[in-house]
Amino acid sequence: MGRRRFLLVICVATLSGCERTPLSAPPPEPPVVSVATPVAREYQPFADFTGRTAAIEEVEVRPRVGGFLERVLFEDGADVEAGEVLIEIDARPFQAEVDRYTAEVAEAESAFKQSDVEYRRMEDLYQKESATQIEFERQTAAREMARAKMEAAKAALERARLDLDWTKVTAPISGRTSRSFVDAGNLVQGGFGAGTVLTRIVTKDPIHVYLDVDERTVLTCQQKIREGKMQKYRDTLIPLRLGLANEEGFPHEGGVDFVDNRVDASTGTLRVRGKFDNPQSILVPGLFARVRLMMGEAGQAIFVSERALGFDQGQRYVLVVSAKNEVEYRRVTVGALDGQLRVIEEGVGPEDRVIVTGLQRVRPGVTVKPKLVDMTTLKIVLPPSQHSSSGVHTASSRPATSTGE
Hints:
elongated, single chain, alpha+beta, nine-stranded mixed beta sheet, 23 strands, about 25% helix
């Protein structure tokens, strides 16, 4: 038993002597990140909105007199000129009224002439003191009454003639008609405010577009106006660009011609109206439109890729690699998005190396191995030694590849 214990002690001692001192682990390789210098170029500040097109003038065509619709003289959707006859109402009852009042005017004129003759005779007698003052005044009043009846008959005749003219319903403005809402043979109601709608006419060129601008943009524009970087719409044309749902970009050019006097408290927006030339009638009232509002004059701006931006408690930031290849945290103030690049108003300069891919693998203060890429394409930027003198890659150089994650 004692011998076994002796052998066990010897084995343990032997194994303990065989242990080697562990070697220290090599330091980890710094993570590889793609960096790019910001793009500096001329930039026109803008803000994008959605809106709806609307006709500058839109009129509901209603008859001023009632009657049976006799003829429709326009085609549905036709272009018409102001004053063009669109619809005719049966004019015979109105012609009869004109004839009746014409006869009444003739009767009233005859009665006035007779009364005038008697007045002049009474006036002569009164001056010769052959008639009393009461008789003279009575004849004067009779003449004035005859005159009033004559004027009333003439006014009634004029109104009858207006009604007769109104049996021909004309276009109040130039533009394009809708369809005819009432067919010939139907009875239409006339009168102001209660007439039957016969059709609608809208103007085509130019055309309006309405958009609702948010409070932040409104305040930014006001600040630019105070700083002299932007003018009021009444002093100059504030440019607008418009694009339809099936169009690329903003091919239509116009300008702001109206800004409302209050912000809608329920939506927090300000109603703005633009005006666009429309010679080819491409813009139709009621269309959805993308509208770009130009905010001030163009100037130099710095852009970084949208992929380089991070969020931190509602703030935007980027990670920048210093000259020592250490990661730095930078809060930035961003502007509008132009394609895949975002305007940076404050926070980075044109010489900074901004991390565009690999943000999740690093944190501020760590050392990284930067790989230079182009900010716009995110493709590797090859050093000059890997290019031939003609600017074409040599056979040994690899083609540029995307570094997007």
